[in-house]
Write a structure and sequence with these properties.
single chain; mainly beta; 7-stranded mixed beta sheet; 4-stranded antiparallel beta sheet; 11 strands; globular
């Protein structure tokens, strides 16, 4: 069974950090472009970051998180991470990872639909 599982969410104070994990089972994550999305109540889902497939995937960040979030892969662990620093209250949302099989030459920003989604992990930034 192909599955993505997110973890690492929680409650953090403004300025704090969290690292989200997206672990895959049933398939090799390095064959896939991975996107991190978030959705706050009453707001549309937003792609905050993505990484292309392969060992050295190219990365993309939304302007709202650029310089604060870092996406990375650990192919040995079949896991993609989202390191989130300098968190703000507006970062509060449910965060989801998604996977789409793509060739290494394809930029993750061109992926519009993803075949596999995790169940989400809640991030709350509040004092």
């Amino acid at each position: 069974q192909l599955q993505l599982v997110e973890s690492g969410g929680g409650l953090v104070q403004p300025g704090g950090s969290l690292r989200l994990s997206c672990a895959a089972s049933g398939f090799r994550l390095d064959y896939y472009a991975i996107g991190w999305f978030r959705q706050a109540p009453g707001k549309e889902r937003e792609r905050v970051s993505c990484i292309s497939s392969g060992d050295d995937g190219r990365q993309y960040y939304a302007d709202s998180v650029k310089g604060r979030f870092t996406i990375s892969r650990d192919n040995a662990k079949n896991t993609v991470y989202l390191q989130m620093n300098s968190l703000k209250p507006e970062d509060t949302a449910a965060y989801y990872c998604a996977a789409e099989r793509t060739p290494v030459t394809r930029r993750c920003t061109t992926v519009l639909e993803y075949d596999y989604w995790g169940q989400g992990t809640q991030v709350t930034v509040s004092s």
